[in-house]
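Researcher: We're teaching a course module on how sequence relates to structure. For the next exercise, students receive a sequence and then see the predicted structure as tokens, so they can try to spot secondary structure elements on their own. Here is the exercise chain.
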Amino acid sequence: MSFTETFDVVAYVIEGLGVTIMAIGLVVVLVRYAVAALRRGGSYDQLRVHLGRVILLGLEILIIGDIIRTVIVDSSLQNVAVLGLIVLIRTVLSFALEVEISGRWPWQAKRGPRPPA
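Model: And here is the predicted structure for the students to work with:
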């Protein structure tokens, strides 16, 4: 197996890990929410926060897989441009999720918990 083929497999494994984290994380978050809802009335805001964190982690890992594949495996100008677009979209999505989770812009000082909606 060549160097390029090896890292193509590595990129697929990393991307699979990112998708697996999101899938398993979704199940775990939903189960925790259901248990909390049955015990004490689960908070929808907590569900959103935990789900957003799972998505952020999965997106970060998917970006790593994309970078490895583009830089090592398919390093053409077109693929680098596509990678840049993918990273830009995922970065904007990550930024929006972070604002949604924390309720503040990243450059703002931390404040107390968000009031209920």
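Model: If you want an answer key for the exercise: The mean pLDDT is 84. The chain has one domain: 3-102.
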